[in-house]
Amino acid sequence: MSQFWSAGVADLTPYVPGEQPQMQRLIKLNTNENPYGPSPRVVAAIREALGADADALKLYPDPDARRFKQAIATRFGLDVANVHVGNGSDEVLANVFQGLLKHDKPILYPDITYSFYPVYCGLYGVAFETVPLTDTFEIAVDDYLKPNGGIIFPNPNAPTGRVLASGEIERLLAGNPGSVVVIDEAYIDFGGETAAGLIAKYPNLLVVQTLSKSRSLAGLRLGFAIGHKDLIEALERVKNSFNSYPLDRLAQAAGVAAIEDEAYFDETRRAVIESREALTSRLTALGFEVLPSKANFVFVRHPAHDAAQLAAALRERSIIVRHFKHARIAQFLRVTVGTEAECVALSDALSALLGAT
Ligand SMILES: Cc1ncc(COP(=O)(O)O)c(C=O)c1O
């Protein structure tokens, strides 16, 4: 705290990202990255954008990221006016909270969800109310059919991995015609059904996706929102009042290549899904309760072993998973689905730890 800080800065509670340790030979299953790396076409596109002598970097990038927006629009059968892009979906979400969710009535989101949402509410002064998940950690649409200033949640939810069926999302949209409903689909490509097909029917629907997970580009920071052009216009106004060039030249070129390489995308997401199912079986056999997941992570607890202690013991074996201190989920661990070998190493380590106590 310093006399030089602007008013309100001392009251902010910043988001705490998952650890990015520099240790070598680590099995890193804590921040839901994709173990397979991006499409080879992405690397080629970056080389091409860089040019022979990196001279291209002296010029500003396209402020509207038109080629990237067009690739997204084409994939979803939409128009460029239906697409907003940002520096990771975190930035897209920041624009959403500022541009679409700040109203007199509180917005609604689940009690257990992506922990950046309360941070944005604090930053932008957005009123909010949390809605408890059911006892089985599911979103109950009926709980969201009440006056609100907007609704946001991830589908599949994080960190639970549980998915809400698209019929239920439609019921939510139809029941909230006066509110923006934001579906954060960071993990949708690992087995859920995107709500993008409902955009033409519901002008209050905004779908947010990222290239960090299913397209393995967490390091380049690429995210987007799709929805009715009036919603997108609000996001563009906020973006152009803050940073005209959130996506650099290399990221834009990579984004186009990643979206266009459907074959690689399908192959790698299938591999993650297969490993998730195998990991679920092995952890269940070890006595863990594993919530049904449609994401690239599983959320697990053991009836006889403390989650924080298990996380610490795994860390001693160079395996990092995520533990949240939130009371309701303090006995859970969130485990990213790694390569098959990493998943086997994790379940072997847990097997040894459980046997040893
Ligand atoms: C639910 C959810 N939304 C959004 C994000 C942000 O992803 P990115 O900023 O990498 O696009 C994450 C990251 O873990 C997430 O879990």
Automatic annotation (TrEMBL):
Specify whether Metal-binding is a keyword of the entry.
no
Q: What is this protein called?
A: Histidinol-phosphate aminotransferase
Residue ranges constituting the Aminotransferase class I/classII large domain according to the UniProt record:
26-348
EC number, as in UniProt = 2.6.1.9
Q: Which family does it belong to?
A: Belongs to the class-II pyridoxal-phosphate-dependent aminotransferase family. Histidinol-phosphate aminotransferase subfamily.
Among Gene3D superfamilies, the record links this protein to: Aspartate Aminotransferase, domain 1, Type I PLP-dependent aspartate aminotransferase-like (Major domain)
Instruction: Quote the HAMAP family the UniProt record gives.
Output: HisC_aminotrans_2
Named cofactor requirement(s)? pyridoxal 5'-phosphate
Catalysed reaction equations from the record: L-histidinol phosphate + 2-oxoglutarate = 3-(imidazol-4-yl)-2-oxopropyl phosphate + L-glutamate
Q: Which NCBIfam families match?
A: hisC
What are the entry keywords? Amino-acid biosynthesis, Aminotransferase, Histidine biosynthesis, Pyridoxal phosphate, Transferase
Q: In which pathway does it act?
A: Amino-acid biosynthesis; L-histidine biosynthesis; L-histidine from 5-phospho-alpha-D-ribose 1-diphosphate: step 7/9
Statement: the UniProt record of this protein carries the keyword Amino-acid biosynthesis: yes
Extract the InterPro entries matched here: Aminotrans_II_pyridoxalP_BS (IPR001917), Aminotransferase_I/II_large (IPR004839), HisP_aminotrans (IPR005861), HistidinolP_aminotransfase (IPR050106), PyrdxlP-dep_Trfase (IPR015424), PyrdxlP-dep_Trfase_major (IPR015421), PyrdxlP-dep_Trfase_small (IPR015422)
Q: How does it assemble?
A: Homodimer.
